[in-house]
Every structure is written in structure tokens, then in C-alpha cells.
Amino acid sequence: MDSILVRGGTELAGEIPIAGAKNACLTLMPATLLSDEPLTLTNAPRLSDIRTMTQLLASLGAEVTQLQDGQVLAMSSHDINNLTADYDIVRKMRASILVLGPMLARCGRAVVSLPGGCAIGARPVDLHLKGLEALGATLDLKDGYVHAEAKSGLKGAVFEFPLVSVGATENILMASVLAKGTTVLKNAAREPEIVDLAQCLRRMGAQIEGEGTSEITIQGVDRLHGATHPVVPDRIELGTYMLAPAIAGGSVECLGGRMELVSSFAEKLAATGVEIEETAKGLKVTRKNGRVRSVDVETAPFPGFPTDLQAQMMALMCTADGVSVLEERIFENRFMHAPELMRMGASIDVSGGTATVTGVEKLKGAPVMATDLRASVSLILAGLAAEGETRVSRVYHLDRGYEHVVRKLSGVGASIERVHGE
Ligand code: UD1
Predict the structure, then answer these.
(1) Among 330, 373, 402, residue to substitute to test ligand 1 (most atoms within 8 Å of Cβ)
(2) How far are the Cα atoms of 202, 220, 227, 266 from residue 236, in angstroms, in the given order?
């Protein structure tokens, strides 16, 4: 298994290009199932999660062709010849459940394996299922699979999500665009990835209003047509690389970064004392000298502080001046990076969903283990600030969500390399 070696202590300078959003791409790809005409995505990220979704769509009969080194995904779902999403693929990635709504809407039937447990909490899919039932689907859970049917098609309905869920909002939104009549989704998620999905569906002929607010109204149409859509920039990759100069010192311009994608995160980052500047090319973050100040963070659905940046922010707080309280409100069990950071000399006390971090002057390099996607990048960030060498193992987690992380960070002067097969 590969690992990544980081030698800390170098200030960063330069530019990092921000890729298209993994999480947006993972919901835009299943949208191809809604139409028999081609859907082309540009600005797609090159990640193993995208390859897993490609494999899943291909298993259903869709064609996915990678062009321009994977940055363009040309998809066609002309011949959907299999309505079963198999456990062997679904277990690799929870986002696989996103094929359920579109398949059911277009084909009137779908069988999808329930995703297994996940390292960052129980993560059920009950809201996805409740929403589809509200649109008239009959569901049966058998042998670890959801068998969904809507013989005479889905029907528009008013559905209020009991709690905000990004994935469930995406699944029901995709299902409702081909339902008969009007659907109103209340307490919908407002993430930029939902806005991006709605924009793509509209390009395909869907009638949607209100995306980006907590109430989305969809007027069902008989069919969708082909379209080309650019994937929104990845706000989590953006936030991660904005933290790199905050942790290591120096200045990094994140190309393609947009403030409205990361506003509550940027507000917290600015409160630590680093400078954030909106430039013609993106967002530039500079830390001139001295330690940053501690800030308290509480994760929340968008527009709140993203749970997907909590681990990375914790890495910064490890060397901040003062005590920081980080509250994780979206997922239980999402502090698995804390014991690894403590191996590097961080002072962290975890109690339930709260982590209290007392900043130390210096972290020390150590062998550490990635436990999930965002945790793995937080260890790399911490390594940038640590004295000596940090070896992060189990980097396959990282490959799921960060393209060319070594190239991007070494491009701004970090001492980082991938070591193969150890
Ligand atoms: C998406 C993102 C993930 C991010 C998360 C929260 C993708 C592929 N992944 O995950 O990176 O961390 O949003 O911003 O886009 N819940 C239920 N029942 C459900 C669905 C969710 O109880 O049917 C709970 C979850 O356990 C969690 C909360 O709702 O506690 C929010 O989860 P959700 O927004 O659905 O996250 P995902 O869509 O899985």
C-alpha cells in the first residue's frame, strides 16, 4: 500500500488549481440515467470515487467515456439493460445510492444494494427511501437490497425532510423531475452541489425553482434531453488548500476558488489572523508570521461550517495560540483523526461530539494512519507544520477525493512525496 511522506517546515508560495467537486460530480453522473440522450460533464475531477461511479453506471448499461484526461465525462444512458445496482460496487461508496431515484423515475423499477456502514457513523438512507415513498414508490427491503417500484410512474407530492440531508435531497430531486405533477421539497439541503445539480437538470429540460433555499419546487416533465454541464469547483478541496499556507506559513492562491462556496469557513479562517483576498483568478490566503489564533467551530449544513472541513481545521488549531472547541454536529464518530494528530504531539480532548484542542508551539513528525478521506488530508496538512518527517499510510482514502495532492502541494514548495507499495 502506498504512503505519503511529508517533511514539515517549508513556507508555501504559488498557485493551486482547484478541481471540479467530487460530491457534485457523484450526483451529476447518475443524472445521465434520467435521459436517453447524452449528458456530458466538463471540469470533472480525476478521482477513484468517480471511477467507482463510472463502474456502477456501466454495470447498469450506461456508457461513460473519459475525454481530455478524465476532465470530460461523456455519458449516454440510451440502453439501460440492468436495473440492479450490485452490492459489490455499492459497498465501495455510499453515493451509489444516488442511482436509485433516477433509475426508478425513468424505468419504473430499481433494485439497489443498501450501502454498508461507514467509518464516520451509521449514515442510514431512510430519508432517501421516505422521500421516494412520498412520490408513490413501493419499497421492499430484501436480502440487503432495496426493491423499488413505481409501475405507473412517480407522482408529485409535498415532502418535508425531517432532517437536512444532502444525498436524500439530491436523490428525490432527481426522481421528481420526471414525476407527474408538482413536487415541493421542504427542509431541503442548500449545498452548492444541490444548486449545481438543479442547474444541470434544468439544462436537460427539467423545471425546477428554489434550489439553494430550503424549499425546492419541481414541475414534472415527460422526458429530459441531452446537455453539457461544467461541474462546480470543489469547495472542500478549496478549503483544504486555503488551510495549507495558514498551517505552513506563506501564501497560496487557489485558482478558481469562489468566496460564496466557502463563506462561513473563510470567516473562521480569517478570524485566526490569516489574510484572505479575492483575486481575479481565485482566492489567495497569506500567513505572514507568528502563530494563528484559536477559534471555535461548530459544523452545520450549508451555509454553515462544513463537516468535511472539520478535520482540516482541527489540524490548524493544533498549533494555534489558545484553546479551540470544535463541535461536530453532522456525523457521530468523526474525530478519528484526533488520536493520529495526538501522535504528532497535538493536545486534544474528545468527549462525544466535542473536541477541545489546546494549541502547541510545534507538532512533531510521526508515522500516522489515514482513517477516512478528510482525516487523511488533515494529517498531510499537519505534516506541513510538523518538525521532521510525517508518514501517512492508507492513502487510498485520499485518492477517493483529492486529485494530484502531491503534485499540487509540491508545486507550492511543500516537501512531499508518494512512496509506492509500502
Ligand atoms: C454528503 C457528502 C459528504 C458530506 C455530507 C454532509 C456526498 C457524496 N457526500 O453526504 O461528503 O460530509 O453530505 O455535508 O455528497 N441521514 C439520515 N438518513 C438519511 C440520510 C442522512 O439519518 O437517509 C443523516 C446522516 O447520518 C447524517 C446527516 O443525515 O448524520 C447528514 O447526512 P447527509 O447530508 O445525507 O450526507 P451525505 O449525503 O451522505
Answers:
(1) 330
(2) 25, 32, 26, 12
pLDDT digits (tens, 9 = 90+) for 85-102: 999 999 999 999 999 999
CB 40, CB 74: distance < 8 Å: yes
Q: Alpha-carbon distance 277 to 257, whole Å? A: 11
Q: Is the model's pLDDT at 230 over the cut of 60?
A: yes
User: Looking at residue 288, what is its pLDDT?
Assistant: 87
Alpha carbon dihedral 345, 348, 350, 353, in 10-degree steps, equals -120
Q: Which pLDDT belongs to residue 290? A: 85
Q: Determine which one of 25, 107, 118, 200 is catalytic.
A: 118
Residue partners of 142: CB distance under 8 A and separation at least 6: none
**Pocket around ligand 1: residues whose beta carbon is below 6 Å from it?**
23, 26, 94-95, 121, 123-128, 163, 165-168, 193, 307-308, 330-331
Q: What is the dihedral of CA 108, 222, 211, 253, to 10 degrees?
A: 90
Closest C-alpha to 213, from 185, 190, 184: 190
Specify the pLDDT at position 1: 85
pLDDT of residue 332: 85
Q: Over range 234-249, report the average pLDDT.
A: 98
Average pLDDT over residues 165-182: 98
CA 163 to ligand 1: nearest atom:
29
- Residue 167 CA to ligand 1 center (angstroms) comes to 6
Q: Rounded CA gap, 387 and 376, in Å?
A: 18
pLDDT at 120 over 60: no
Distance CA(117)–CA(146), nearest Å, equals: 16
Return the number of other C-beta atoms located less than 10 Å from residue 276's C-beta.
18
Q: What is the pLDDT of residue 122?
A: 63
Listed in order, strand segments (DSSP E) in 150-307 are 158-160, 182-186, 207-209, 215-219, 227-230, 250-255, 275-278, 282-287, 297-298
Helices and strands in the chain: count of H runs, count of E runs: 14, 24
Out of 29-38, 159-168, 208-217, 391-400, which region has the weakest mean confidence (pLDDT)? Answer: 391-400
**CA-closest candidate to residue 253, choices 30, 14, 79, 82:** 14
- Closest alpha carbon to 228 in 206, 207, 203: 203
Could you give the CA distance from residue 325 to residue 7 in angstroms, rounded to a whole number?
Answer: 28
| Conformational region of residue 237, where left means phi above 0, alpha means psi within -120 to 50, and beta covers everything else | alpha
pLDDT bucket at 124, cuts 50 / 70 / 90 = confident
